[in-house]
Design a protein that fits this description.
This protein is α/β, with parallel strands linked by helices and 247 residues long. It has one domain: Rossmann fold (3-Layer(aba) Sandwich). The chain has a 7-stranded mixed β-sheet with strand order 3-2-1-4-5-7-6, with helices on both faces. It is globular and about 50 Å long. The chain starts with 12 loop residues before the first helix and ends in a 6-residue tail after the last strand. The N terminus is likely disordered.
Length: 247
Amino acid sequence: MLKPNSQTRFAGTIGQEYELFARAVPHHDAFQRAIGEAVKRHFFSSQAAPVKGIEIGFGKGHTTHELLSAREDLNLRAIDNEVLMLHDAKNNLGFWLKSGRLSLIHADALAYLQGLDSCSVDMVASAYTIHNLSREARETLLKEIYRVVRPGGVFVNGDKYAEAEGVHEESLRWQLEKFDTVFGEGGRPDLRDQWREHYLLDDTPTFRFPEAEAIQLLERVGFTPVANSFRERMEAVLVATRAQKAV
């Protein structure tokens, strides 16, 4: 994943046991599938040649699996800067690595994108990553994503996008209660406390990522149209297209 303020956020226990996170998010698998389905729909009739894609922040490989399952002709370069995640992803994604359609790259995503030619990929996708960046870093990254995606290509991002006031606070309370139930009552108060701390930090002005603000930012860097294809509690999937022609 990218490094907010040169610090990683999954280097401890929650990174080592990240797969347990899904137990506290009942819609986790549906959310991940929605990312792959959004890519599949975008290229359903408009792309005859193999799709060249980049994934930012592959983690344990959940999103990677859904992306590769959704398009049989997708060739994916997945990037993460967490060594721990790289080790686990290699174990979880062995089938796709052997197929030759997947490359796992240990690197900082922004630096990697800056080394790519403009308009050189069809698709960029990410999940649970960009909200970890400061507002300034988000805009810098999104500008690079727009630059490397070809006209007609797409950026699909699944993340914790805050809804309107009141609705967001209720969803956050619901999620914190899930952590209490799943990890606290399940005998893992360490994970409960770390995930609660992580989510409360995400709700501070530095990291909170309102959906309306995200759409405006994507449009400002050049994507159009931008649409929401999934929403369940705190998680949403935004689909941002780079138009064939300037508008």
